[in-house]
Design brief:
Order of helices and strands: HHHHHHHHH
InterPro entries: Cyt_c_assembly (IPR002541), Cyt_c_biogenesis_CcmC (IPR003557), Cyt_c_biogenesis_CcsA (IPR017562), Cyt_c_biogenesis_CcsA/CcmC (IPR045062)
Low-confidence stretches: 167-177
Radius of gyration: 20 Å
Family: Belongs to the CcmF/CycK/Ccl1/NrfE/CcsA family. Belongs to the CcmC/CycZ/HelC family.
Structural class: mainly alpha
Shape: globular
Oligomer: single chain
Organism: Gracilaria vermiculophylla
Number of domains: 2
Function: Required during biogenesis of c-type cytochromes (cytochrome c6 and cytochrome f) at the step of heme attachment.
Number of strands: 0
Largest sheet: none
Strand content: under 5%
Keywords: Chloroplast, Cytochrome c-type biogenesis, Membrane, Plastid, Thylakoid, Transmembrane, Transmembrane helix
Number of helices: 9
């Protein structure tokens, strides 16, 4: 049943991808938008069921290996999408989130070898209540920061398109320009709010990890590759939030920082596991 939930979720992601992009490319249809919302709610429910089933079957919170964390990250992305769409009623949220969710779930389901999908006994360091506290908060912070960074990337794309359009076609229609400015401001402000939520979660996750590390390994900080990149991730988004307070850094410049943060988050989450081993490399398989 767990595999069925994952497979159905993957199929629904594919359907939703087409719905969101058709809706944006051709016509903003209320029916298509609502259909996308309904499908995304079902994706979240299916992923929730799959995680609960795995939790019950193995008697520990399903965040002990790469496969489980990928499923949890996908759930986090879809859940955040549900919340943001209910608040903002914007099709672009699903249009940028759905491809990442599809990629993450597809990578977990299709690329990982079968032995990595199987649950195994926890290593001694993971036999702790901190597993749920630290890892779940970190994964939710990753999902939140990824979504916020995607919004900044979208802002940069639309910002550059707007500038090229105004330069090449010399559009002087006030209402059209006002509409674009409003959309850009909406995306920029939403990105700021989402990253503003993800940053404290990342901070809490890092602090919880330090306490757990001291309990498990006798040191709060050991400059493990994962710890180092978590710190780099924290510094990048701290710089972004600080730049938003500076009036000289508005619009494009902070968005570039957040876009860099998108790459940094993926390096911290996946890149470290692929490039080298460390105390956190439970999902390493190269």
């Amino acid at each position: 049943m767990e595999n069925n939930c994952i497979n159905i979720s993957f199929a629904l992601f594919l359907i939703n991808l087409m719905i969101y992009w058709i809706n944006i490319a051709f016509k903003r249809s209320t029916v298509l938008y609502k259909l996308g919302n309904i499908i995304n709610v079902n994706i979240s429910l299916l992923l929730t069921i799959s995680l609960i089933l795995r939790w019950i079957q193995n008697s520990y919170f399903p965040l002990s290996n790469l496969y489980e964390s990928l499923i949890f990250l996908t759930w986090g992305l879809s859940f955040l999408q549900v919340i943001l769409e209910q608040q903002n009623k914007r099709s672009f949220i699903g249009a940028i989130t759905t491809p990442i969710g599809l990629f993450t779930l597809g990578f977990a389901s299709l690329s990982l070898p079968e032995n990595m999908k199987q649950a195994s006994p926890l290593v001694p360091a993971l036999r702790s209540n901190w597993l749920m506290m630290h890892v779940s908060v970190m994964m939710i912070s990753y999902a939140t920061l990824i979504l916020g960074s995607l919004l900044s990337i979208l802002f940069l794309v639309l910002y550059n398109i707007k500038n090229k359009t105004n330069t090449n076609l010399k559009l002087n229609y006030a209402t059209q320009q006002l509409s674009r400015i409003t959309l850009l401001q909406s995306i920029d402000n939403l990105s700021y709010r989402v990253i503003g939520l993800g940053f404290p979660l990342l901070t809490i996750g890092i602090i919880a990890g330090a306490v757990w590390a001291n309990e498990a390994w006798g040191s709060y900080w050991s400059w493990d590759p994962k710890e180092t990149w978590a710190l780099i991730t924290w510094l990048v988004f701290a710089a972004y939030l600080h730049s938003r307070l500076n009036k000289e850094w508005q619009g494009q410049k902070p968005a570039i920082l957040a876009s860099i943060g998108f790459v940094i988050v993926w390096i911290c989450y996946l890149g470290v596991n692929f490039l080298g081993q460390g105390l956190h490399s439970y999902g390493w398989f190269l």
